[in-house]
Design a protein that fits this description.
heterodimer; A: alpha+beta; 3-stranded mixed β-sheet; two-stranded antiparallel sheet; 23% helix; elongated; B: alpha+beta; globular
Chain lengths: 231, 255
């Protein structure tokens, strides 16, 4: 098994629902313990998150596009964070999920330095490293209805831009969508074989210029509707 | 499949007839109300320029009427941050880590033409008043429009936050620029409400502004308000580390 996520950069609207749902579920998880927040009411609030959304712009107005980029642990096949861990706290499961055993972690930070994706966050209150668990305490929970046995971020996404599944199974939705849409890995040149895949944004349609709009008005707006409306 | 779209609205036509003096029922007496009904209560959909921008206004008494659109060339709009929809108070400590201050966002090319650049302090001025805030440029905004996140700026002490929270020290609101009433063209004219004529929805998106660079040394948001009085029984204690449980903890289930 090779469990992971597909994240569609075309439909992600950057609402941070995945990040907040992740925080909500994992803040109460026994896998990681509470996710601490520092100075939550003060001038510079910060805290532990497993999933953060960055926003970028590409291109120049009016042919520009905003890219919303959710980033969490990619559950690498050759995870350097596991290799460097001196206590064996970081481990990779048979199903592909990379976890940190909170009882073994001594907070040395080596894994965070080894991870080129910035996917690990030290909880300063417990002195231990924490990271995305792929909601391991949801996806196998037989007390949940089958459709809810998915990571909290996947369930929360309002545009269904996130998919969870087994990349070892060529028939799985994540494998199929990755093949169809040209899903890509982040920084594959580093050789860590990240599992998560990102679907590229589609090319933006050029904005209608004044001349083109004038021609459309001359033709009549009905020319747009006529092909699809039966009168 | 058949989709029925009702394009013609008889209730709107009744209002229009009232404005035209042709309705057998209550009718407005003021000419401005009659004109408003006759023009905007069209039973068929139509487009008209935003009302605020199409008005003339007088600044100081005695000065000649000027066009709002000429004087205030930019549209100013707000967007509610998506992550703050459907949230509740206990999530504020998380949500404010995502967004706790706002900037005025302007098209990069437009900013260049106005001699403005990232992090400049600017005055944003409407016919109603002005605010001071910090500018950021971007590509993803129409060239004649500026925007900012709505409802991030807060009075110091509001929401249980420390008075030096960035919502109070850097966040700002466009509310101070939005008038309840449309500008008066003539001194003796009855002021009309600044809202959609049909629904009465406040016309926040009709706002017109001009943006100018602050003088050297003019920094910080303006206006600044007094720190809010704490709620009863609030002794000011705020945890410096917050470990929040959203639900009963679950155990990892072995695969």
């Amino acid at each position: 098994m090779k469990l992971g996520l597909v994240i569609d950069l075309d439909t992600c609207v950057g609402c941070h629902a995945c990040a907040t749902a992740c925080k909500e579920w994992n803040a109460s998880s026994r896998v990681s313990g509470a996710l601490s927040d520092y100075e939550p009411f003060g001038a510079e609030p910060s805290g532990v998150w497993f999933n953060r959304v960055r926003h970028y712009e590409v291109g120049e107005y009016p042919a520009n596009k905003t890219i919303n980029f959710p980033m969490s642990c990619l559950h690498c096949e050759d995870a350097d964070c596991v290799t460097v861990c001196p206590t064996g706290a970081s481990y990779k499961r048979d199903d592909g999920i990379v976890l940190v055993d909170q009882d073994k972690c001594m907070g040395c930070n080596l894994c965070a330095w080894a991870c080129p994706y910035g996917a690990r966050e030290l909880d300063e209150a417990t002195g231990t490293m924490k990271k995305c668990t792929l909601c391991v305490d949801r996806v196998y929970d037989k007390m949940l209805p089958p459709e809810d046995r998915q990571p909290a971020c996947v369930l929360a996404c309002p545009t269904h831009a996130r998919l969870f599944g087994d990349f070892d199974d060529p028939q799985s939705e994540v494998s199929r969508v990755t093949a169809e849409r040209g899903g890509f890995a982040l920084m594959p040149e580093l050789g860590l074989k990240p599992v998560n895949r990102y679907l590229p944004p589609r090319q933006p349609k050029p904005v209608m210029g004044d001349d083109e709009a004038r021609r459309l008005l001359d033709r009549g707006l009905a020319s747009l509707a006529s092909p699809v409306i039966r009168r | 499949m058949q989709v029925v779209l009702q394009l013609y609205s008889e209730p709107l036509q009744k209002f229009r007839l009232a404005g035209q003096g042709l309705y057998d029922g209550p009718q407005p007496s003021a000419l401005s109300d009659c004109e408003r009904l006759a023009k905007y209560f069209d039973p068929l959909p139509f487009w008209y320029p935003p009302l605020e921008g199409s008005r003339a206004f007088r600044g100081e008494s005695g000065s000649a009427a000027r066009s709002i659109a000429d004087e205030y060339p930019l549209h100013a709009i707000t967007q509610r941050p998506m992550m703050m929809y459907h949230s509740w108070d206990s999530q504020n400590v998380w949500l404010r880590q995502i967004l706790s201050e706002n900037f005025l966002y302007m098209n990069r090319r437009t900013a260049g033409e106005l001699g403005l650049s990232d992090y400049d302090w600017v005055w944003v001025e409407s016919h109603r008043g002005k605010v001071r805030c910090q500018l950021k440029t971007m590509e993803g905004v129409e060239a004649h429009t500026v925007w900012t996140w709505n409802a991030v700026g807060k009075q110091p002490g509001a929401w249980g936050l420390s008075p030096d929270a960035s919502e109070a020290t850097a966040g700002f609101l466009l509310n101070h620029l939005i008038s309840e009433l449309l500008p008066a063209g003539d001194a003796d004219e009855r002021r009309l409400t600044n809202s959609d004529p049909v629904t009465g929805q406040a016309a926040w998106f009709d706002l017109r502004v001009k943006v100018t660079k602050c003088a050297p040394g003019e920094t910080g948001i303006w206006p600044v308000f007094e720190t809010a009085t704490p709620l009863p029984h609030d002794r000011g204690y705020r945890p410096r580390i917050w470990r929040y449980h959203a639900h009963k903890a679950v155990k990892e289930t072995a695969s």
